[in-house]
Amino acid sequence: MERETWGSKTGFWLAAAGSAIGLGNIWRFPYLTGANGGAAFVLVYLLLVFTIGVSVMLAEFVIGRSTNLNPVGAFAKLKGGAWPIVGWMGVAAGFIILSYYSVIGGWTIKYIISSFTGLISPTTDTTSYFLGFIGNGPQTILFHALFMAATIYVVYRGVGKGIEGWCKILMPALFLLLLILIVRAVTLPGAGAGISFYLNPDFSKITSKTLLAALGQAFFSLSLGMGAMITYGSYISKKVSLPQSAATVTFLDTAIAFLAGFVIFPTVFAFGIQPGAGPGLTFITLPSVFAMMPGGQIWSALFFLLLFIAALTSAISLLEVVVAYVTDAQGWPRHKAALVIGAAIFLLGIPSALSNGAVPINVFGMGFLDAMDFLASNILLPLGGIFIALFAGWIIKDIAKKETTSEGPFPLEKVWMWICRIVAPLAILIIFLGGLGLF
Ligand code: PHE
Fold this sequence. Notes:
The protein is mostly helical. The protein has 18 helices and two strands.
């Protein structure tokens, strides 16, 4: 059977940007920024994204396109030995991330509906509303199931018709919604304090934990370190410039995260709410903010619709990594792979759905969902990133050169190579060990 490819360069860019842009940009980035002191965190994040992030993304595209294979197959074909383990780690990370990602994706569906059914009212205590909902086992499992079903449906349809077709509609819609919300947010009276929190750095706020949080966020947000971009890269035609693609996708992802901050912080400050509220920042503070605005139900529904769209286009890339592996390696038809693996991921997500108040399920002193997120974002993805960078920089040098210059000269090739060889692995290792408190 002929392997699927993207229909066009723009289609691929939108799909890859769709993978990158997700809950990571609109939910995780603002709450981490709020909890880590604002502008200084943003600066460190930007620095990591445009050095290490963009370089690892290019490395993943190279590995994917040069083999047209899933992450495990790609490492096996290019070098073999122990390298396919990196691909395995990626497939495992995809499985783990999607299991809890879908739970939060389910929350967004619930909140679209709730916007019209009582959430948005001056008398609603949004904290108890949120805690009541996430502590309701059957409901959270139901919405997790709905979100997984949507994800499975798109992947089931395949690369061109499913993933690319949907991203081409959903990504521009998301951008438009975000612009509308920014206009609303920055014109609120008192928005200025939020903007200055967001843009005036205070470097005393930077600690080794902040650095690991920024690094984990860079990998999570750009969908790096687990082979999602290897998989999407494996469907790129030879006529697309990889450096240009990595730059475009990194830019789009960062722009959306940065813009999301302009929705969250002005609104939060305009209504005198604490920016460090943590993971609840989006689900607790924004609804109470919307309740105080004219037309609040509509703004709220729009905002959570946006979050749902962003989450869906990311979730399909997570599922696609595992599906690509099973179709390539085990010869399963796409339909069967999407259904069976989707169902398995749904099951693994159940403890995450239940661990937020319904049933106490703790691992390493954290709730199950938080433990899964920590394991994936702060451990598996940075580790994967180290090996992917080393692989591109040392093991497949010639292929890397050929792939990155296929569509004309790549002026930054040497810089990229040295980032992959030395800078990225070393920086990730140092931040990683420091953040875990190991030195
Ligand atoms: N990048 C996605 C987000 O920001 C999450 C993701 C991580 C998707 C890893 C694929 C792979 O929400």
